[in-house]
Automatic annotation (TrEMBL):
UniProt xrefs under InterPro entries: Metallo-depent_PP-like (IPR029052)
Identification of the protein by name: Calcineurin-like phosphoesterase domain-containing protein
Species this chain originates from: Variovorax defluvii
Source taxon at top rank: Bacteria
């Protein structure tokens, strides 16, 4: 059987309450040091799958936003990573993966790259070198292919967290950023992995602003941008953007919950019904107007309130639902093509390759919406195989079939297959775990896809148990989000009423 050489996971958001891999009690209070039932079921099923594929331990690639460092305390993410290592990366003291883990930071764990930059600079000082600035990116491929005697930068923090786990004392986590490249022996097939944040315009806003300078006006996707340009211009912005959310008190918490609901769920049945019920109850308590009271022509108070909710919040949120109703918008596709034909193509050429002749696969995450496809891209003779890993979070209260998570399996010949793990349970069920390729005729000659599909069926009971846990986690988290929003809203309103009540007294004293 064709065994994987690499397994790629992304967007785990370990440490965050909204991650399905973080343990939380019935009230949604997280305990990052404990694995969630979903994490336990995933680790068990993955071990069975790799055992069924009968190969040496594959290399684990963690493709960004694995640690939720931007929104969660360092202690929480450290405890959550140690729990993940214990649950998924070892089996009774035996390692499930190869001793070297490759880590490609994203926007939520960009701080790991900042630490790696500092470490690289200090290592240079140890060799008597004083550089002008910090390293902006690592080599695309293994350093041996590009510079003799070099090695990737180790993450000392993550390596230390792994070292205390049985069987992993010799493990090492190495950082690649922002792109990690894999190249076959014939230098004809290539896989490039990137978390995906530099495809998203909001994380390269400084590059876009620079392109709008007088005389340039290059628009949303300016030409001739390298990965070094992206990081040097936007790295500090990525850190800043995720450095202080969640520290704005109860008012900020209420605003965040409102945003989470409104961006996708304001037009949902649950939201409209609950909000309308709350408004009707307040009318009854404050003014004695029962919900069944007829207003005019047979229309009751309850019906009138529900209509107002639908006509205002509901219709206003419909435009927000578009981002979840489709995997990629036309602008998203343009952004993806720009990143591949620009920064990625330039980096491939710098490594001495002819991009147009390559059989390229591109793997990214960030969007939390897994998919597989082929995409014609300028500068490449063949369509690029594109895979998205999705995400393990439930950060909005309604279910959408586009959201979910995948794991990528890559063999020695750099064939890629996607293990579709789950999508949000729509109509009360999660799609069963299954293998997917790009969806074109090239899937027929993909031995990794065939081997993965066979192994999934041979371990079906373990994956069915995982699906049940994933469905329970997403549904319970969605319900909690609605509860949290209404609870926060009541407290915010109460605080505002108190403030308004004391304002006249304050004015009189003034």
């Amino acid at each position: 059987m064709n065994a994987p050489r690499y397994v790629c996971l992304s967007d785990l958001h370990l440490g965050a309450a909204y991650s399905t891999l973080t343990y939380a009690d019935g009230q949604g209070r997280p305990d990052p040091g404990r694995p969630s039932p979903t994490q336990v079921a995933f680790g068990s099923a993955l071990r069975e799958l790799l055992s069924a594929m009968d190969g040496p331990p594959p290399t684990l690639i963690l493709l960004g936003d694995v640690l939720d460092m931007g929104l969660s305390p360092m202690g929480n993410v450290a405890a959550a990573f140690r729990s993940f290592v214990q649950t998924v990366m070892q089996d009774g003291g035996r390692p499930v993966f190869a001793p070297r883990v490759l880590y490609v930071p994203g926007n939520h764990d960009h701080h790991l790259w900042r630490i790696a930059q500092d470490q690289h600079y200090q290592d240079a000082l140890d060799h008597g070198l004083i550089g002008e600035d910090l390293l902006q990116h690592t080599a695309l491929f293994e350093p041996a292919l590009e510079e003799e005697g070099a090695s990737r930068i180790a993450s000392s923090m993550l390596t230390r967290l792994m070292a205390g786990v049985p069987g992993l004392s010799g493990a090492r986590v190495e950082i690649a950023y922002p792109n990690l490249g894999l190249l076959d022996a014939a230098r004809q097939r290539c896989v490039v992995l990137h978390h995906g944040h530099y495809i998203d315009p909001i994380y390269r806003v400084m590059t876009m602003l620079n392109a709008q300078a007088p005389g340039r006006n290059a628009g949303r996707n300016p030409p001739h941008v390298t990965v070094s340009d992206l990081e040097s211009q936007n790295g500090a912005w990525v850190d800043f953007m995720w450095s202080d959310l969640g520290s704005s008190g109860m008012t900020g918490a209420g605003a965040n919950k409102l945003y989470e609901v409104m961006r996708d769920a304001a037009a949902s049945h649950d939201f409209a019904e609950r909000l309308a019920t709350q408004l009707v109850n307040q009318l009854d308590q404050n003014f004695g107007m029962s919900g069944s009271m007829e207003v005019f022509h047979g229309v009751t108070v309850r019906q009138l309130v529900r209509g107002v909710v639908d006509a205002t919040l509901g219709q206003g949120a419909e435009s927000q639902r578009d981002s979840y109703a489709e995997v990629l918008s036309s602008e998203d596709v343009a952004d993806l093509r720009w990143y591949l034909s620009g920064p990625v193509r330039h980096e491939l050429a710098q490594a001495g390759l002819d991009p147009s002749a390559l059989d390229l696969r591109f793997i990214f995450g960030h969007s939390h919406k897994p998919f597989e496809d082929e995409l014609p891209v300028a500068g490449f003779d063949r369509p690029v195989g594109v895979f998205n890993t999705g995400g393990w979070v439930m950060d909005q209260p309604t279910m959408t079939s586009t959201q979910g998570a995948s794991a990528m399996f890559i063999d020695d010949a750099l064939n890629v297959a996607s293990l579709r793990l789950f999508n949000d349970p729509v109509n009360g069920r999660v799609p069963p775990v299954h293998a997917r390729g790009m969806g074109g005729f090239r899937d027929r000659d993909n031995p990794m896809l065939a081997a993965l599909a066979d192994a999934v069926e041979r371990t079906r009971p373990a994956w069915d148990a995982f699906s049940q846990r994933a469905q329970q986690a997403t549904e319970s988290r969605a319900a909690l989000l609605l509860d949290e929003f209404f609870t926060a809203s009541v407290e915010v309103v109460a605080n505002a009423r108190v403030a308004m009540a004391v304002m006249p007294a304050v004015r009189e004293q003034a």
